[in-house]
């Protein structure tokens, strides 16, 4: 490495698209900047020594009260566009969870509120979460 090269700080997160067979998606209203008061997918930082899958399970529960087994999650992909978060460089691994219709939710942790939204009537979403949701929909399966 030369003297002119620098390292970029990269933060690692996990997000979850929780969807029901009747066409609703679980969103949280963010209680903190950035995008305070805006709607987003449940998710957050991967803790030291934690796998992104485990962080996704943990964050989904902490922010919405929805408990899933990691084996229920399917990886959608990794999102690493340099400008996806105004705080700096964030790389997220996104997961899909199909949960039963009527699954109860309780906002917690970083969420001001949590709500089931119909896929045909979504609010504007924070970050690149609309793109993540769009990528998840073809992967969803319903019984």
Please tell me about this protein's structure.
By secondary structure, the chain is α+β, with helices and mostly antiparallel strands. The chain has a single domain (10-139), classed as Alpha-Beta Complex (Nucleoside Triphosphate Pyrophosphohydrolase), CATH 3.90.79.10. It has two helices and seven strands, in the order E-E-E-E-H-E-E-E-H. It has helices at 52-64, 129-136; strands at 10-19, 24-30, 39-40, 43-45, 74-79, 89-98, 111-118. The strands form two sheets. The protein has a four-stranded mixed sheet, with helices on both faces. Strands 3-2-7 form a three-stranded antiparallel sheet, with no helix packed on it. A hairpin with an 8-residue loop joins strand 2 and strand 3 (39-40).
Please render the helix and strand layout as text.
Blueprint: E1 10-19, E2 24-30, E3 39-40, E4 43-45, H1 52-64, E5 74-79, E6 89-98, E7 111-118, H2 129-136
Parallel strand pairs: 1-6
Antiparallel strand pairs: 1-4, 2-3, 2-7, 5-6
List keywords for this structure.
Nucleoside Triphosphate Pyrophosphohydrolase; alpha+beta; four-stranded mixed β-sheet; 143 residues
Total E-strand runs: 7
The whole-angstrom Rg is 15 Å
Instruction: Give the total of domains.
Output: 1
Bin the strand percentage.
25-35%
Helix content: 10-25%
Mean of all residue-level pLDDT scores: 94
Number of helices: 2
Shape call: globular
Helix-strand makeup class: alpha+beta
């Amino acid at each position: 490495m030369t003297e002119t090269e620098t390292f970029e700080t990269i933060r690692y997160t996990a997000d979850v698209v929780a969807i029901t067979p009747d066409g609703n998606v679980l969103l949280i209203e963010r209680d903190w900047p950035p995008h305070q008061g805006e709607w987003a997918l449940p998710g957050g930082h991967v803790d030291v020594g934690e796998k992104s899958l485990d962080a996704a399970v943990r964050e989904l529960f902490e922010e919405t009260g929805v408990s899933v087994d990691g084996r229920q999650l399917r990886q959608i992909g990794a999102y690493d566009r340099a400008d996806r978060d105004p705080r700096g460089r964030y790389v997220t691994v996104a997961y899909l969870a199909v949960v039963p219709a009527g699954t109860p939710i309780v906002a917690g942790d970083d969420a001001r509120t949590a709500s089931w939204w119909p896929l045909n009537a979504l609010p504007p979403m924070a970050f690149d979460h609309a793109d993540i949701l769009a990528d998840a929909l073809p992967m969803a399966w319903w019984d």
